[in-house]
Write a structure and sequence with these properties.
- The chain starts with 12 loop residues before the first helix and ends in a 12-residue tail after the last helix.
- With 175 residues, it is mainly α.
- Helix 1 packs across helix 2.
Length: 175
Amino acid sequence: MSHPQPPQRQPTLSETDRYARTIHNVALCALVACPAVALLPPRKFDFFTFGLIGTTAYSANYLTRERTGRSIWQHVGGINQSVVAAGSSPMPAEQSNLNKDLQSAREDMQRLSAGSKLTTEHSQAAQSARDAWKAQREKEIQDDLDVGKGFGEMITDQIYEVWNWSKKRDDEDED
């Protein structure tokens, strides 16, 4: 005769949250630790390495599914399985994710359109500064050529200035 099973106790909400948090933390640790362990010497391609690679992939898939509601393969395939299979609208969690993404994209567009005026002013200022530097550099080169310096001497002077933090070489100090 069979013995009746005692009723199983249902986990409380705090236990369920603690379990989910623990699994999340283990997946994060595995995602970082497994590739690090696989790269430690001796590096060889054996069953242990395959296990580490598989654990890394499983952890990444778990974290992706936990965050987005879809696995990595569903993201790579680009097919929403629930829409194709059932012919209905996306799951409520996915719909809320899509709404959040759409809202953040709208906010980004508003921020970009407001910041575009500042960006054009900044780029114009940068362009004018670049043009001023080019004009100054061309004037310095022309002055050095007028004095009779060759290009080799100008290059060594430039290297000296860079090496000595923009201190110019004085010809009298070399004597």
